[in-house]
Amino acid sequence: MGAQMNRRQFLATSAMAAAGAAGILGGRLEAAPKFRTTLKRALIVGEPTRENLQAIKDAGFDGVEAGIVTPEKAAEARKIAEEMGLRIHSVIRGWAQFNSDNQQEVESGLQVTIDALKAAQAYGADAVLLVPGRMDVNPMPEPWEFRVKFDRKTGHITQVVEGDNARYQAYIDAHNRAYDAFQVAVRRLIPVARETRVVIALENVWNNLFVDPAHFAFFVNSFKNRWVKAYLDLGNHVKYAPTEQWVAALGKSIAKCHVKDFKLNPDGRGGNFCEIRDGSVDWPVVRKALDRVGYSDWMTIEGGSLPFDEQRRRLDLIIAGQ
Questions:
Q1: Which helix H or strand E contains 300, and what residues bound it?
Q2: Residue 316: count of CB within 10 angstroms of its CB
Q3: Tell me, what CATH number does 193's domain have?
C-alpha cells in the first residue's frame, strides 16, 4: 500500500511539474480545449485584392468569403491569398429568383449561379451561398404567430398558424409554388456543383420563406445530395426561433455559418440587427449547439461597422464559447 501511494504521489508531482514547466516555457498555462470542433474566422470581401486581403490578414482573420469574378481573376486572387496564408473559402451568389413566372429570369439566375460555382472552383472555395428566391405575399403571419406544419411527402405547407388558415391561403399557395420551383432549379445545378466540387449552400434570409427550422431542414435534406447543404446565418431568423434551434434542426447539413446578431425588442417581438455580441443571440449556447452537431468549419462575419480587429476580438470570444 505504501509503495502504491508513493507511486501515485510521484506521478501527481511529475504531472504538476510538467504543467508548471509548460506554463513557464509558454508564458501561460494553456487550458484544455472545451470543444471538439475547430472554427475558423473570416470576413466578406467583394473582389479580393492584395490590399483588402492584407488588411484582413493584419486583423488576425484566417480567410474570406468573396464575390463572383471570372475564373481567371479568381485564380489570381487565390494565389495572393495563399501567399498570405489566407483561404478564400466561399463565394456569395446571393439572391436568385427561381420562383419567378418569367422563365428568362429563371434561366439568367441559373447562369449567374453557374458562374459563381466556377469562380468558387478557381478560388479554391468549397461552397457557394445561394438564396433561391423570395416572395412578398400579403397578408402573412407575424413572426411570433407562425406555427408551421408541412407534408413530409411533398414539403408543402399545410398550416402557418393555429386554427383557421384561410386568411393566409395566398401565402401558403405561393410558398408551395416556390418550393416546387426551387426543387427544379437546384436539381439543374447539382451536376455543375458535382463537376466543380463546390457545395450549393442554401441560406436562410428575410425572404418570407422557410421561417420554420424543421421545414428549412426538410427542404435542404430533400435533395439527398452531398452537393446541396445549408448556409446558416446565425442571426437572420432570431425573430422566428432561437438560433440554437436552427442549428439543432439543420445539424450535419450545415455547410457554412454567417455570424450576425439581432436584438429583439423587450417584448420579444420585432427588433433590429446589431453588432455581434450586442444582440439576443445566446452565443455560448449556440457555440455548444454547433459543437454538438459537429460543425467544424468557417464563421464568417456579415455586416457590422466595427474595426476589423474589434470584430475579430468579438468573434474569438464567440468561438471560445463566451
A1: strand 298-301
A2: 13
A3: 3.20.20.150
Q: Is residue 28 part of a domain?
A: no
Residue 25 lies in a domain: no
Other Cβ atoms less than 10 A from the Cβ of 4: the count is 8
Q: How many percent of the chain have pLDDT more than 70?
A: 90
**What is the identity of the amino acid at 119?**
A
- Does residue 151 belong to any structural domain of this protein? yes
Neighbours of 310 (CB within 10 A): 14
Model pTM score:
0.89
pLDDT, one tens digit per residue, over 236-274 is 999 999 999 999 999 999 999 999 999 999 999 989 999
Domain of 192, in residue numbers: 33-319
The x, y and z cell numbers of residue 127, run together, are 461552397
Between CA 109 and CA 50 the distance in angstroms is 30
How many C-beta atoms surround the C-beta of residue 260 within 10 A?
A: 22
| Entry field: residues in the chain | 322
Mean pLDDT of 301-313: 96
